[in-house]
Amino acid sequence: MTDAVSKRSVAFSAAQPTGHLTIGNLFGAINNWIPLQEHHDTLFCVVDLHALTVRQDPQELRKNTLELAAIYMAAGIDPEKSIVFIQSQVPQHSQLAWILSTFAQLGELERMTQFKDKSLRHRGNVNAGLFTYPVLMAADILLYKTNIVPVGEDQKQHLELTRDIAIRFNNIHGPVFTIPEPAIQSHGAARVRDLQNPEKKMSKSAESDLAKVMMLDDANTVLKKFKKAVTDSLGEIRFDETNQAGVTNLLSIWCAATGSNRETALAHFSHNQYGKLKVETAEAVNAVLEPIRQKYQMIMNDPTKLERILTHGAQQASAMAAIIMTQIHDVLGLPPLPGAYNRG
Ligand code: TRP
User: Residue 341 domain-assigned?
Assistant: First the structure.
């Protein structure tokens, strides 16, 4: 069990509650979180404050936030082993974000590719939060003296900024922060591609429904999407990202879903047609998703229990965060935190 005096190394990760997760998020991120629970103190957060950087419908946001927490647990995050919580229920995230914003330089934030992309996509709302998004992410990570952060390749730049901020702070004020190491999944199954446009990574924000397989899609929908996946006219089943991105993607997804390596996949499919590859990949994915779908339904059928778990998670996280906030106040010359926030 995770507690404040434990000496195990700490792993932290998070996702935004903006729409449901795809099998890309499952194979590329969440599946890598599960085994960490055995040998690390693990925290998995739903970052609803980050979601506010893009305009949200309040009801949708509330719903998506709970559903994402339920998806974590349905996929195998065990609240007995990990702290599962919602970012906005732990006020220290915002408190530390403010402090860290005074250690982040405008120039560094301007270089973030996610900021550049998002400010182009949301031209009408380039708010300051979109700009300081990585500072809040740094706060998420640094609050818990996190050692490792399992994330996708697209978050690498944010993680490097987190390290730079922590090192800068420590150089001025002493060794308060642990410098986190990224655990980037950057190969194979981590890179599930868009089924309609396999040049791109599969994204939950893709416009076409056929482009992405959601973790909660039913079995028929999954089958339909794979059947319509874009391939090529070469008629050979090979790993060749350059000339056969679609076929390579299906093979990698099959490998991820069955836990097989490339050789096994090639031996299994070498004499088959694309149709068979598509159907078998869909079946393999359904075999992974079916228990997740069932568990998800169970969790969602008991909202009181879900809320209880999340409240408990927030309390545990907040108690851990209080320790470092006390230290930070001390080294910065801020007065001690009174009462409820000073449980450290
Ligand atoms: N920015 C991450 C994403 O879009 C989500 C995130 C927020 C995160 N805070 C984090 C990931 C801390 C890892 C650690 O995927």
Answer: no
